[in-house]
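User: Can you recover a sequence for this backbone? Please restate the input before giving your answer.

Assistant: Of course. Working from this structure:
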């Protein structure tokens, strides 16, 4: 579906299903230089099992027009505007990496719009090295290659080819290259800077009251499980129900462990 938000087209994948305000809704939020397609298995399953699915392309990413947004708060507000346009009051927010910060920020500032949050491959603070920021600014193909390598725990995830002609490592590389080609703005750099500059995570966690799921990759080099512990501790201290699942994957949890992630989301949505 396409939505007009502040004069820009914002695309949300619904798995071919119409949005029914009477059904529960889940919003899927991708990470830096990604788009809605990273949630292929999880979004399709939930859409075909009684839920509205809105898997967004954030502005400047693939099918959504406009410049990439510069702050996590702006991204969270954009998603709230999309829910308004879709006629949805409250939804579960599922975010990967940068998307997890968007879900966290929204749960704190827009609690009436967030029923629960799932933080996939999360960390706070989510700092980006100066070397990677420089590469994103000056040598974007190099930044894409570096992040793609660091996102995977192995060059051949098991199974390395879930379907004929499918290669998780190569697909992720091409996805990031596609996002870069479709927008002349430095999308990767803007996304990285938004993560790097976000300093409201602890304050946001202290205000969250909804249930929280964290799905972490045991071999994640980008956001290792230890980097999420302070955030999760703060969430627990405020009385949020926090469920943590650690899976045998790197940062690319959606493709390295798609079934494990889907199972975790299914359990989380039922409670």
């Amino acid at each position: 579906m396409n939505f007009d938000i502040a004069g820009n087209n914002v695309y949300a994948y619904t798995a071919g299903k119409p949005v029914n305000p009477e059904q529960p809704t889940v919003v899927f939020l991708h990470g830096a230089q990604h788009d809605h397609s990273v949630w292929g298995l999880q979004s399709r399953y939930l859409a075909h099992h009684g839920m509205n699915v809105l898997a967004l392309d954030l502005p400047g990413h693939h099918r959504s027009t406009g410049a990439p947004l510069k702050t996590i708060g702006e991204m969270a507000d954009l998603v709230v505007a999309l829910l308004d346009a879709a006629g949805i009051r409250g939804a579960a927010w599922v975010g990967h990496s940068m998307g997890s910060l968007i879900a966290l920020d929204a749960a704190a500032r827009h609690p009436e719009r967030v029923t629960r949050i799932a933080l996939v491959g999360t960390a706070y603070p989510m700092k980006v090295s100066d070397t990677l920021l420089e590469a994103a600014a000056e040598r974007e193909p190099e930044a894409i290659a570096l992040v793609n390598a660091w996102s995977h725990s192995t060059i051949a995830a098991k199974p390395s080819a879930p379907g004929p002609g499918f290669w998780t490592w190569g697909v992720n590389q091409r996805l990031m290259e596609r996002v870069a080609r479709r927008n002349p703005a430095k999308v990767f750099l803007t996304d990285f800077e938004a993560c790097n500059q976000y300093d409201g995570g602890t304050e946001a966690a202290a205000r969250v009251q909804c249930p929280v799921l964290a799905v972490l990759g045991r071999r994640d080099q980008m956001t290792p499980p230890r980097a999420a512990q302070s955030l999760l501790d703060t969430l627990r201290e405020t009385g949020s129900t926090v469920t943590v699942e650690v899976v045998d994957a790197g940062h690319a949890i959606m493709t390295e462990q798609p079934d494990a992630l889907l199972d975790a989301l299914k359990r989380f949505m039922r409670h």
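That completes the design. The longest strand covers residues 114-120.
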